[in-house]
Design goal:
By secondary structure, the chain is mostly beta strands. The protein has a domain of 177 residues: YVTN repeat-like/Quinoprotein amine dehydrogenase (Methylamine Dehydrogenase, Chain H, 7 Propeller), CATH 2.130.10.10. The protein contains three helices and 56 strands. Strands 26-30-29-28-27 form a five-stranded mixed β-sheet, with no helix packed on it. The protein has a four-stranded antiparallel β-sheet with strand order 1-56-55-54, with no helix packed on it. Strand 46 and strand 47 form a beta hairpin. The protein starts with a helix and ends with a strand. 54% of the residues are buried.
């Protein structure tokens, strides 16, 4: 039965389940209007924190993954890829793009609930949401919650904090970050705080709050079981209710001093709990694993012994149980930066443990195939952190105990041969994240020659994309060794020359460099001002003879020798912002002072800047965009003051009154018969509907008219920038914060 179901496509699987539950399957009508664009990810594969993996308890191959800022995905057993299911979240609602918890209905695999909301901060929107689906995430309804949730806050890998009550599937519980425990009795449509629960506001300043809800089997002679709730509280964070949630008690004898991070309940009556001195994922220490025998009310410290690193130096993040053998338990470490995080496995309920990774000086238990994501080698020959860092997610296949998936701060690994280790064999791991794209894009360029796209990303560096269908086989750029690349540029008339700046890798001091062959070989900058003041942005003159570097703070500098000697620029505005080059005149550079609303121009290769147009608006700067084919043709995006256009190098600007909120402008190949480049806009138009929703548009006539090109299913939440392709008409590249790099081409069937 398992093999047959695994051979089905998701649509066929959905049809089978729909028939079983007498619910019509969801399908696309042949008369459905075609969207204007076809959208795909530029493959890097993963690149962010996988915070949860959930498997339906009895439906084979039904897995979901959640991420901290990139939404959720469903596994497609036919294509062996992950399908994004929250790309419909609009840019104006980007704050509910991150998923903090997934809840599956154990009585009906069609039902899916997602808890959405990224930040518990004064500057963030005051509400969050539940996404509710009755077709496995093909479609959703949204229920607004009157409080914040924090999918990118401390404790985000804990859980699940959203849970369906198995004996009353119309009832759900939700553990919040700072608002206690909440309950819905009508399948998530309405919610109320559980006032009987002892914790109704934070007891710890980590903003993790109520981190999990789970359920025991039915109690003797009753239709309901024990409800267990975890709270990030070092004075006692484990609660239980034996009367279906009417009253709550601290579990007696529980360990204190650390906070629980996750828990799992075995079929033979043991509650396993991971602990650390703080919620994590940053800075967790004093890791412990505890076992609570429910029947005998006995606690036992079963923390795995570790000869490599003292347990006081790291925490524990996740614990899972083999559903086929309740004595087989696995627990993952957190913040064990040397030699890397680890998964410990016990086959005797925590009496003895074995490390699954390749501990120094010990027998190797694992091999890793990262060919799907070569960048995971980080310039070496084996993954740089062995099993990965931040192993906050794990899931054993309920139908196959030899199949384990686990998530890290960078990717997802999978094996179907976990039990090899039981016989002295080696576990083959491979990247199991195909379809997941969670990078945070800082900058994009599309030169007129060479690779069509190069990307600058948060946390994992920068890439050259020669083939959008595969993660770059050369991995990311390694010289200079940068973690987050904040800016990348090319010389318009010499497009093989590129430069980038960013934050250096641990232990490194250089934070920028240039390449004459689009990244195959590099020369690093010396005397680099951005290393101490924040990297900011870099611009290359049209002919490549001048570099100008505007750090996030401090002095803007220029170089005429490839970044070996940097000299402060004169006349630079007090607010540096970004620097860009004119794409035709090699001596011109542009900057904007948003504190004064003044545009600045340099005509001597960045040596001096002088004020040009004034009165353009303050504290709203987003981007300066320069026409690649015409000198002095500049567009200025001011988020609160509209879109401005100059044809005289910023001496004067005119307003594009149709755009009320521009976030980003990019240029692409002109439409047939036109000479002006196609324009791509991320922003709001005065005619784009009630509330002027932010979306993506194209203009083929220099901004006189705009055509919407996004469709309701492809919104991508937190979009940060857009550019066009100078060699492919209609192609747009989208940079997002959490969904990676997306490219769109005109749909030939539209």
């Amino acid at each position: 039965m398992t093999q047959n179901i695994r051979s089905l496509s998701f649509s066929a699987l959905l049809l089978v389940v729909s028939v079983l539950f007498s619910i019509p399957a969801v399908g696309q009508s042949t008369t459905t209007p075609q969207p204007p664009y076809v959208w795909k990810n530029v493959r890097i594969v993963a690149g962010g924190f996988i915070t949860g993996i959930e498997a339906h308890p009895w439906m084979p191959e039904l897995f979901y993954v959640r991420t901290d800022i990139g939404g959720s995905y469903r596994w497609d057993p036919f294509t062996q890829t992950w399908t994004p299911i929250t790309d419909w979240v609009t840019p104006d609602n980007y704050d509910i793009q991150g998923t903090i918890s997934i809840a599956l209905d154990p009585t009906n695999p069609l039902n899916l609930y997602l808890a959405q909301g990224e930040y518990v901060e004064t500057w963030a929107p005051p509400t969050s949401a539940i996404f509710k689906s009755s077709d496995m995430g093909n479609t959703f309804s949204t229920i607004t919650l009157p409080f914040q949730l924090g999918s990118n806050e401390n404790g985000r890998f804990s859980g699940e904090r959203l849970a369906v009550v198995p004996w009353s599937p119309n009832v759900l519980y939700l553990g919040t970050n700072v608002n206690g425990l909440w309950q819905s009795t009508d399948s998530a449509n309405t919610w109320a705080q559980v006032t009987s629960f002892p914790i109704t506001e934070p007891t710890n300043n980590d903003k993790a709050g109520v981190i999990f809800v789970m359920f025991g089997p039915p109690l003797p002679k009753l239709k309901y079981g024990t409800i267990y709730v975890g709270v990030s509280d070092p004075t006692g964070g484990l609660y239980q209710s034996i009367d279906n949630g009417n009253t709550w008690q601290l579990i007696p004898g529980q360990p204190t001093g650390d906070v629980p991070t996750n828990a799992a309940l075995s079929a033979n009556g043991n509650l396993y709990v991971t602990c650390s001195n703080q919620a994590g994922p940053n800075g967790a220490g004093n890791g412990q694993v505890w076992k609570y025998n429910v029947k005998n009310a006995i606690w036992t410290n079963i923390t795995p012994p570790d000869s490599i690193s003292s347990p006081a130096n790291y925490g524990y993040a996740k614990v899972v149980i083999d559903p086929w053998n309740p004595n087989t338990v696995m627990a993952s470490t957190l913040d064990r930066y040397y030699p890397g995080d680890e998964i410990f496995r016990s086959r005797d309920a925590g009496v003895t443990w074995e490390a699954l990774g390749n501990e120094p000086g010990a027998t190797a238990h694992s091999t890793f195939n990262v060919s799907l994501s070569p960048w995971l080698l980080f310039g070496g020959t084996v993954p740089g952190d062995i099993m990965g860092n931040w192993i906050g997610a794990m899931s054993v296949d309920p139908w196959d105990p030899s199949r384990l998936q686990y998530g890290t701060g960078a990717t997802l690994y999978a094996t179907s041969q976990l039990t090899n280790v039981d016989h002295g064999g080696v576990i083959p791991w491979k990247v199991g994240a195909l379809g997941i794209e969670e990078t945070a894009v800082q900058d994009l360029i599309s030169p007129p020659a060479g690779a069509h796209l190069l990307s600058a990303l948060g946390d994992i560096g920068a890439f050259r994309h020669d083939n959008f269908n595969v993660s770059p086989p050369q991995g990311q750029f390694h010289t200079p060794q940068l973690i987050t690349v904040t800016s990348i540029d090319f010389a318009q008339s010499n497009p093989m020359l590129i430069a980038l700046v960013g934050y250096p890798s641990y232990g490194q001091t250089l934070c920028g460099g240039y390449s004459k062959d689009q990244g195959n070989t590099w020369t690093t900058f010396t005397d680099a001002p951005g290393c101490t003041n924040g990297p900011g942005s870099i611009a290359i003159s049209a002919d490549g003879s001048h570099f100008v570097w505007a750090p996030s703070a401090g002095v803007t500098v220029y170089s005429n020798d490839g970044g070996q000697i940097w000299t402060p620029s004169a006349g630079v505005p007090s607010y540096n912002g970004a620097v860009v080059s004119d794409r035709v005149n090699p001596n011109k550079f542009y900057m904007f002072d948003q504190t004064a609303g003044t545009f600045y121009v340099s005509t001597d290769g960045g040596q001096t800047f002088t004020a040009a147009a004034t009165g353009l608006g303050t504290y709203s700067f987003k981007q300066i965009s320069v026409n690649p084919s015409t000198e002095g043709d500049v567009w200025l995006s001011l988020q609160w003051n509209g879109l401005w256009h100059s044809t005289n190098s910023g001496a004067s600007f005119t307003s594009d009154s149709s755009v009320v909120w521009p976030d980003s402008i990019g240029f692409g190949m002109p439409a047939s018969g036109n000479t002006y480049p196609a324009l791509y806009l991320l922003g709001r138009l005065t005619w784009s509907g009630p509330g002027y929703p932010t979306s993506v548009f194209r203009s083929d006539d220099g901004g006189n008219t705009w055509t919407p090109i996004a469709d309701p299913q492809h919104q991508y939440g937190n979009i940060t920038l857009v550019i066009g392709d100078p060699r492919v008409y209609g192609r747009i590249y989208i940079g997002s914060n959490g969904r990676g790099v997306i490219y769109g081409d005109i749909n030939p069937h539209h």
